Amino acid sequence: MNGKLHSETGAFSSDDMRAEILNPFVHKLELDNTYDKIKTAIFTVILLPFRVIVICYLIVTAWFLACIGLYGLSEEDLRRKPMTGWRRALKPLICCIGKLSYLAGGMAITVRGRQASRKEAPILVVAPHSSFLDSCIVYATRMSSVIVRKESMDNYVGKLINYTQPVYVWRDDPNSRQNTIKEIIERATSKEDWPQVLIFPEGTCTNRSCLITFKPGGFYPGVPVQPVTIRYPNARDTVTWTWEGPGALKLLWLTLTQVHSSCEIEFLPVYYPSEEEKRDPKLYARNVRDVMAKALGVPVLDYTYDDCRLIARAKHLGIPAAASAREVSELRSQLGLERSQLELHVAAGGVGSARGGAARWVGAEEFCTRLGLPLDHRAQRLFDIFVQRSSGLVYFPDYLLCAAFLSLQHAPLTQLLSYAFKLYETRGPGGRSRGITAAQFEEVATRCLALCQEDAHNTFRQADLDEKGTLTYDEFISYAQKKPEFAFIFTCDTSHHKPKTQ
Q1: Rounded mean pLDDT of 308-322?
Q2: For the chain, which residues make up each domain, given as ranges?
């Protein structure tokens, strides 16, 4: 695989392969049959303890060697000049031990192609990023320098990461992005023999169904880069770690109880940027992504880390279909709903707030009729995201709340709550609002405030001061303003806030 790539090779469009909208932030993994459950249980008893002991021994050994190699060096020394002499000579040994720790866990690492020298390509661009197990690339690339958050260094493996002479990112530094780019440029263009800089340009984990937007930071130096792909060609995917799916411990447990698993790392030919790409890092990043997507046989989608934050916020608040929020947003845009914001007017028109179970549960045709859409494949996909498998119907208020959340995502949560109250409220003579009942408030609170049913019930009782059995939006807001646990309602960004229990 020794060769050159230029922008003239042509871009790989997502339209070439994309049959439907993908959600790269969801991964489902369950032991769905008795055989798998029994096999996992047996290997948990007879195989897992042995593997854990061996892996821990190897990691401690590598950590000890890293401590020796770093002895007498300060953090400033690591940032000022590359390691030389006996300290650098320890790297191949640490890499060997690192690979053995993966082999001890049952994972064989296969390397294809040739890693370019630093002179040929100062930067290695690695994708897709889908797992904490992707750290094997550090050992496969002879401990290239990684990009790492400084706060991540305050742990047991910090010594091993420090040994790569990483580029640090300080989350609390308002100039962090500019400083990181500056240091990457200095490393990539330095005449000293620094390790290659290793970058995961996606910036977050996906399920490998596509390549999402590449951040341009690693492309600012305008130097040649070597694309590197990672695959996990296993019958059962026990490694993918996304925003919606199994946690790290479950994935590690299931991976270590597999008889065998594989990781394939492929070094693609060095990509040499054109003059236009040197001037435009975003163009450079897009074109490298196209080349890597073509090698992987997957589409490219313009999803970003901000989409992950959107999904995380939706999950925190309990928004229906939170994991598919990005997909819902794109479908609404394609169907013209995003521009018209039709859903924000639905409650006022009575479509979503009709009383009775039959009016709220709708089939595909009624779903499209209410939104003024033809029943095509995009509308059907939007319906399928919210459908209840047991009945084949959609609970229409769930869709309306998700759509309203997307339309009002940059506004204070009070606006979404106001919409939700209108969606559920009953009105008396003259259109005067009578508020919502306890059961209706529980629906609103579990879907917009991440309250459990019991907490929602208690909140309603405390806010219903007159004990009339209904609660208006103004009455709830008046109550919430006096409670510190609801302070997040009145801020514009609730992505990092969860309500406390009552």
Answers
A1: 86
A2: 4-303, 307-490
336 contact partners, CB below 8 Å, separation of at least 6: none
CA nearest neighbour of 3 among 278, 200, 227 = 227
CA nearest to 263, candidates 230, 293, 236, 219 = 230
Residue 426 bridge partners (DSSP): 435
pTM, two decimals, is 0.72
Question: According to the model, what pLDDT value does residue 426 have?
Answer: 67
How far, in Å, CA of 434 to CA of 440, rounded? 12
Pair 294, 17: CB distance under 8 Å: no
In angstroms, rounded to a whole number, what is the distance separating the alpha carbons of residues 157 and 195? 19
Asked whether 361 and 394 are in contact (CB, 8 A), the reply is: yes
Q: Which amino acid is at 152?
A: S
Could you check whether the bond before residue 128 is cis, i.e. omega within 30 degrees of 0? yes
Token pair recorded at residue 163 = 């040994």
Q: Do residues 230 and 130 touch, judged by C-beta distance below 8 A?
A: yes
What are the b/e assignments for 328-352, b being 16+ CB within 10 Å? Answer: bbbbbeebebbeeebbbebbeeebb
Distance CA 141, CA 489 (A): 47
165 closest CA partner among 182, 178, 153: 153
pLDDT at 21: 53
